[in-house]
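Hey team,

Sharing the Potassium efflux system kefA / Small-conductance mechanosensitive channel run so nobody has to redo it. Sequence (370 residues) first:
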Amino acid sequence: MLAAPQTADASPEPSTSADSTPTPTPSPPSVEDVQRSVEESASSGLEFITGTGLRVAVIILVAIVLTFVSRRLIHRFAQSIAEGHTKRGIISKGDRPQSGAADAAARTRRAQRSTTVGSLLKSIAAIIIWLLAVLMVLTELGFDLAPILASAGIAGIALGFGAQTLVKDYLAGFFIVIEDQYGIGDVIDVGEAIGTVEEVGLRTSKIRALDGTLWHVRNGEILRVGNFSQGFGNALLDLPFPYDADEQTVTTIINDAASALRELEQYDAVMLEAPEIMGVQEISGEAVTIRVTIKTKPGEQFAVGRAFRGEFKQQMAAHDLTVPWSQAVIRTMPNPTAASATRRAADHAAEKSDGESGGSSSEAAAPPKE
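Structure output:
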């Protein structure tokens, strides 16, 4: 028998399975792998909490405690300022007490000053504490702060040289407020400027002069302060008397002027003591000057002094006393040209007069003609 020939369809196809690499199928995680992963995560989390996390929490807790303690201490300090250890307007024993309005104004002023100082100190303390806390936390979290601190140090040095005047002004203003050297409404003398304080800032103070000029004075440039509105005032008066006025008359005139001034309510309320006669201040060719002082409430010495001088003048007139005054005679030098012309005219007139008188005398002396 003849065998059937094989066709092309019956020929076997070449196999490609031997040339390709089989892809491995991932096996599902076992229970041991899952348990091991959970244990590692828990271990790392517990290490963070007990290590870095705990230290960060402690830093934040300490910052909170320090902030609370500093605020309490600053509050007590501000309260002591509000109560006032050295009160304004204190009057010695035997003098008349302060009015309720003046005492209320002093309390209000101290309360405002204590509030300003307290808020400023609390802000400064909070900024310092939390700035240090943030730096410490960043260090615990692994941040490298060396470049930042180096840059901040260089910037601080540059600002220190450039803004040292500004820092000086702020420090001076801070101590002006704390020590209550002056406040709004006080009449002060700071050397270049004399007037009423309108604003007290940490950097500058605004002073209104008597002529209306508003002076802006840097606090760091104030070397001395004369405050006319603290404690009490003294009206300093130099009163002239004639030489023939005796001691009894001088005392009577001064006391009568003070009594007349006390009859006015506005001056009686601010005059704390009777006038004090200090004695002879000056002896001149015109009068004898007697110095008198009057103790007043702070800032009222100027008005009392002006009113007392007016009453003093009236009392002098009532006692028929006058103060001699010096008279000056002013002579002006004539114009040289005019003086020469006047002199020539006078000489010519004199010569003419002499000539006329000589002629008349010669006529009178001549013998009569026969």
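Residues 53-143 form one domain.

Ping me if you want the raw files.
A.
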